[in-house]
Fold this sequence. Notes:
The protein is an alpha+beta fold. It has helices at residues 21-27, 29-38, 223-234, 249-258, 269-283, 287-290, 364-376, and strands at residues 12-15, 44-45, 53-54, 57-61, 63-66, 69-72, 76-80, 86-97, 102-111, 128-139, 143-147, 149-151, 168-175, 180-183, 212-217, 239-246, 263-266, 300-302, 316-328, 337-344, 353-356.
Amino acid sequence: TRTGKKGKPSLCCFIGNPLPEDVARQRWQWRYDLKHKNNGRRSKLNEDEEDEIILNVDCHYAQAKVGSWILNIGDCVCVKGEETKEHIGRILEFFKTMEGEDYFRVQWFFRAEDTVLKDAASSHDERRLFYSTLTNDNLLGCIISKVEVVKLPPSLQLKPKLVHPAAYYYDMEYCVDYSTHQLLLNAEHSVSPPLNVLPRYGESLESSKQELWLLDLYSGCGGMSTGLCIGAKVSGINLVTKWAVDQNSSACNSLRMNHPETQVRNESAEDFLELIKQWKKLSEQQYITDVENESEGLQKAEHHPTKSEPNKPTDEYEVLRLVDICYGDPCNNGSRSLHFQVRWKGYSPSEDTWEPIKNLSNCREKIKDFVRKGVETKLLPLP
């Protein structure tokens, strides 16, 4: 988590008078817009998240004093983090809240050990940082000291010699959302206002971070969809790969490791498209009615697990819940149809089985519950 933690009490305060309101509004108009839209309903946006924003701003300042350090907007500072961790960031704002608390907004730099390069961090200069566009608000008392950070042109050397011994430096950008590194643009990104926070005209705060969802067919390891999402984000569009489908199990495992937020399905695109059609029928409660009377027994199905359940006939077992859904032939019995992954009452997840829907037609409530939750969580896209 890239946030500051207030340390031991030290002399910290703002210097001078607040900036005139028209000057502050001209420079940080987005923050005053958020305050106006919030209308005092809450004090924070994205509370306890890495991009937390204070809403109840009262006024802005140009300078602050922390210990013996005089700090200006644009200075780089060392900030106390979790436990003994210390972070480096650039000051973007000084402001006081309506409750009289002193805050600063910071744009963070990342060390190699804080990125996907952590296993190779020992080969990097300890002074090397990576630029990022991650910003958030922190209490002024989190600042430890002022530091020097300089920008260098990209170099093949892991430890450049053209840096002052006491300075940190950066020569590349780290994209937090996609865990990737890239060369810095000639003009570094503006980090205020945050693209994914400031609502458009007429939008509420709750809708200001609306996501657009992407389905990646023949996804491989997800490189193409990741690049598309990065490009969209640079343009101010919050595009996210929600679903990915590929028949190669190794590619799917890699995609799951790098993008745990994506629902990855290891199956053919043809089976997945048929599944979407069947899913639409289920969501409209049509398919359940069609198969309602195809078999007997309530919440039971014919099955022969490896273990027998106490006090139950050996050929009948009770369904605890449905775990997943697919279209195809997961049991390799030559029959392609809609299947559910079944969790059996009294058995572990390792003994889940795939059952065709015709064997579960009288588990109507279980199927309805699964479909209802699946639609709510966007388990599958609807055509």
